[in-house]
Write a structure and sequence with these properties.
Elements: H1 2-13, E1 18-21, H2 28-33, E2 37-38, E3 51-52, E4 57-60, E5 63-70, E6 78-88, E7 91-99, E8 108-115, E9 128-134, E10 145-155, E11 160-169, E12 174-182, E13 186-191, E14 194-200, E15 209-217, E16 227-240, H3 246-258, E17 263-265
Parallel strand pairs: 3-6
Antiparallel strand pairs: 1-16, 1-17, 2-6, 4-5, 5-16, 6-15, 7-12, 7-16, 8-9, 8-15, 9-10, 10-11, 12-13, 13-14
């Protein structure tokens, strides 16, 4: 029965809007030419003084690598972020990522998320759903944990946020299948097929978002020798207008790979700009 359902899904997916990237591009220039924005400069959520640098991203053996370099001095700290086109709302988005614990206790944040712009403080149309892994804690807690967050709105300075969040404690070092479902009235977060949280109400996104990956540093890093932390992305798949089980998303990727597709995009362009500034 499961095999039959998977075949039904695969057939339906061929007719639905899909975005798939296997990160087989030969270089960053090709990645950008295919619609990914590689963030440069200062700004939230990076710690004050830290900089997002294009070269902190790299491609190798079908993986997108996001590196973070620091010696505890925020002015010398370099972060990484990549954002896709801003055209995703209702549907299912899954990424296979290798989260990593770190050898030093830097409060790094390894994130996979979808986000629209924050136009002003407490913007009622702000839309974001995300996964954030804190291998050495942060934000006032030393606990190692993975967050699944559905946002309502936020003010950055001084910080005040409204969201629904679930925490999954313990190490998540290794390959993880992270899935977000966005419906008209609810969101769901899954880790390796396990439902973590279902949220309804104001936290449901209302405007198109960009698929994004980032590696940044929270407050609390200690001065010391220069060190590098990194995590990797194997692939990302979005299926529009459908809530698809995580296992079926993975099966669809295997079919796309079997067809020799390294990148596949049938999601219509929204005409919106991917700001890549959150």
């Amino acid at each position: 029965m499961k095999a039959l359902l998977a075949l039904v899904f695969v057939a339906a997916s061929a007719q639905a809007g899909e975005f798939f990237d296997d990160f087989e591009q030969p270089d960053l220039a090709t990645l950008q030419a295919q619609g990914w924005k590689l963030r440069e400069g200062l700004g939230h959520p990076g710690i004050a003084g830290a900089r997002f640098v294009r070269e902190q991203l790299s491609l190798s053996n079908g993986l997108l690598r996001l590196a973070l370099n620091t010696d505890g001095d925020y002015a010398r700290t370099q972060l990484a972020q990549a954002c896709g086109p801003r055209k995703f709302l209702v549907g299912t988005t899954t990424a296979r990522v290798r989260l990593r614990d770190t050898a030093t206790p830097d409060p790094v944040v390894q994130a996979f998320f979808l986000a629209g712009p924050l136009r002003f403080d407490f913007d009622p149309e702000f839309s974001e759903v995300d996964f954030e892994y804190l291998p050495h804690g942060g934000w006032g807690s030393p606990a190692r944990r993975l967050y699944g967050v559905a946002w309502q709105t936020v003010r950055l300075e001084p910080w005040q946020s409204y969201n629904h969040a679930v925490e999954r404690f313990g190490s998540h070092d290794g390959w993880q299948l992270l899935t977000v479902q966005v419906e008209r009235g609810r969101t769901r977060h899954f880790v390796n097929g396990e439902l973590l949280r279902e949220a309804e109400g104001r936290t449901v996104p209302t405007v198109p978002m960009a698929i994004s990956f980032s590696h940044w540093l929270a407050a609390g890093s200690q001065a010391g020798p220069a060190r590098e932390h990194a995590f990797e992305v194997d692939w990302v798949l979005h299926v529009s207008d459908r809530s698809v089980p995580p296992a079926d998303m993975e099966a669809r990727v295997q079919q796309l790979r079997a067809q020799g597709l390294k990148r596949h995009d049938t999601v219509p362009d929204s005409g919106l700009t991917s700001e890549c500034n959150l």
